[in-house]
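Module 6 notes. Inverse folding takes a fixed backbone as the condition and produces residue identities as the prediction. Think of it as a translation problem where the source language is geometry and the target language is the twenty amino acids. Below is one complete input and output pair. Work through it position by position during the lab.
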């Protein structure tokens, strides 16, 4: 069953209260998703000086310190020891390498939020030991501009408060949906990997405009705005995308001719298969 928490702007008062309670947050890993969350947390009122990031690359540590004012260190154990909420933001392939050195620092007072693709909460709990609180999240890169879409689920030992706080954190950079853990791989295939599908479509649309004589810059702007505008109409309204599509397709008109070409090219089937293969790969990573 899916529970909708909605856009962050619809729960501003609640979010501010919860964010005030989340005084200190630590990150293991300082990549793009960690940066997106840091930006959102600071925008929501968290003191940057109370956010600590463990990052192995010196240049990346310097970048985060200079641009966001957070505390950056190369020692993950220090981060875990100092914070009650730790966000694990490393590659799935280095899960054990990242966690083993800090196992001793985890207590039942700490909650680990993992954004690792395909890695089940049970696997993380097995490394940390039974009883440890774990939340699993699959975010996506538009979180960098506050337009992310994240799916979340709770581990065996996490509390309702843990899940609510995790939702609040990710609503700082977009929307958050709570799903059953078996569906997190589907979230990965759809919204986690989805931005790449959309970028590919925007690029192809722009290429079509160039083929018909439009300047590249103009074609790209029109393509991106068209995708953004169409998506906003779906989000703002109550009508199914098929209904919106039918309204654009006049009888014997230009759009229905174009839609016929898309159907002949298998665009619909290709997108469905893309989500399926991404979800399958997520399961393999786990």
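Target side of the pair, the amino acids:
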């Amino acid at each position: 069953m899916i529970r909708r928490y909605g856009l962050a702007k619809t729960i501003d008062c609640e979010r501010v209260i919860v964010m005030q309670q989340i005084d200190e947050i630590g990150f293991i890993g300082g990549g793009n998703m960690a940066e997106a969350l840091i930006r959102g947390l600071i925008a929501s009122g968290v003191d940057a000086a109370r956010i600590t990031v463990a990052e192995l690359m010196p240049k990346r540590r310097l970048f985060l310190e200079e641009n966001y004012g957070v505390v950056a260190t190369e020692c993950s154990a220090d981060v875990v020891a100092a914070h009650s909420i730790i966000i694990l933001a490393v590659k799935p392939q280095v899960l054990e390498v990242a966690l083993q050195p800090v196992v001793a620092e985890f207590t039942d007072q700490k909650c680990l939020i993992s954004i690792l693709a395909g890695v089940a909460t049970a696997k993380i709990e097995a490394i940390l030991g039974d009883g440890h609180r774990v939340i699993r999240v699959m975010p996506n890169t538009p979180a960098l501009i506050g337009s992310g879409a994240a799916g979340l689920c709770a581990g065996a030992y996490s509390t309702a408060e843990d899940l609510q706080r995790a939702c609040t954190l990710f609503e700082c950079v977009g929307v958050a949906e709570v799903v059953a853990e078996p569906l997190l791989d589907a979230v990965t295939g759809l919204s986690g990997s989805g931005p790449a599908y959309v970028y590919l479509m925007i690029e192809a649309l722009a290429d079509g405009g160039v083929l018909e004589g439009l300047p590249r810059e103009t074609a790209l702007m029109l393509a991106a705005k068209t995708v953004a505008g169409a998506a906003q109409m779906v989000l703002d309204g109550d009508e199914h995308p098929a209904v919106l599509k039918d309204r654009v397709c006049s009888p014997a008109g230009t759009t229905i001719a174009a839609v016929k070409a898309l159907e002949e090219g298998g665009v619909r089937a290709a997108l469905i298969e893309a989500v399926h293969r991404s979800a399958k790969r997520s399961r393999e990573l786990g």
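Reference fact for the lab report: The radius of gyration is 21 Å.
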